[in-house]
Please model this.
Amino acid sequence: DIQVTQSPSSLSASVGDRVTITCRTSQSITSYLNWYQQKPGKAPNLLIYAASILQSGVPSRFSGSGSGTDFTLTISSLQPEDFATYYCQQSYTAPYPFGQGTKLQIK
Amino acid sequence: QVQLVESGGGLVKPGGSLRLSCAASGFSFSDYYMTWIRQAPGKGLEWVSHIGSSSTYTKYADSVKGRFTISRDNSKNSVYLQMNSLRAEDTAVYYCARDNVDRYGDYFDYWGQGTLVTVSS
Model:
């Protein structure tokens, strides 16, 4: 099975900062990598699929890049509503593990 | 609009069984794969199982294989998760999600609100 490693596990940043979260897989998954945002007590929300395609309705400050085994999620200018936990997920082959999550906190 | 509503969670003793349901509306249910994902208290997301649009294809995480069974009834726009031989480590919020399968892979574009399963004596 493909393993997914996400880093960092937590991150402190300020409104307006640019932040990057990294996801690495144990073997190449081409571009089959998705990103989700989860706020406390809520279901996750799809942000990006296929490594770089922005889900409808998601603000353009979110972007994704990468292919093969290394991927990044970038938030270009943090807004107050972006403080949440972010997960990557590989969809190259089932089972489809998620990364461990990155909790983005206000500095 | 797309809606997914889970039900069937609750408190069950170790070794017991529970059946979760997820009622879908707002889209052509029979055209989509469906997925169950769980989240233990204070922990991350764990993919559990998914099922193809016509039930001919199912897949499970190793942690639930042989104990959980996913099924669907397209006439009722519903997907189910039968959970047997439950363990304390199965305690989690269980989410159903629409599994969009296309040339971009599998991605979960709509989620339910979740139902809590607690396994405890």
